[in-house]
Amino acid sequence: MNMLVAFLHHLAAFTLVSSLVAEMILIRQPLSLSSAKSLRTLDGIYGVSAMLILVMGMLRVIYFEKGAAYYLHNHAFMLKMTAFIVVGLLSIYPTMIFLRWAPALKQNQLPLLSPAQAKNIRRVLHLELAGIVIIILGAVLMAKGAGFTA
Ligand code: HEM
Description:
Blueprint: H1 2-28, H2 33-62, H3 68-72, H4 75-90, H5 92-100, H6 102-106, H7 115-143
Helix pairs in contact: 1-2, 1-7, 2-5, 4-7
This protein binds protoporphyrin IX containing FE.
């Protein structure tokens, strides 16, 4: 069970990063009906992966690995959780814009995306990727025993 949960944690983490990179590539190009639909799908995959990462991560903290007491006294874990929350909050902006496209996409119409919005989304996606680098650093440090306070 321990290995299955660890596997799902990693699988969801890789899926999340892949969907983020794919969103980044699509948003750099002029918006088309097909790229708008893909962006929405990718954002959905991103959301499901984030939920799966969280659930599997919590299961690992509470039931598997080193025990909750270890993680709750570990600075690297706190760093990882803070970065996870910041990335989650950042992801609200693109998601809100993609959700607003639903009526246009239902009628197979190209949704509106102003140059300013596209630029902001690109910036947010970049920041999210930077946040994920911090999360992975925190994950490795806490797994290897760094950042532990008694
Ligand atoms: C985008 C978000 C996340 C990514 C990319 C991520 C990535 C990783 C990676 C790569 C590892 C393996 C570290 C290693 O063995 O060297 C790991 C381990 C772990 N993660 Fe995450 N993680 C994320 C979110 C979370 C969350 C939200 C939690 C808790 C609620 C969590 C809890 C854990 C735990 C408990 C381990 C085991 C560490 C150990 O072996 O002691 N992770 N994570």
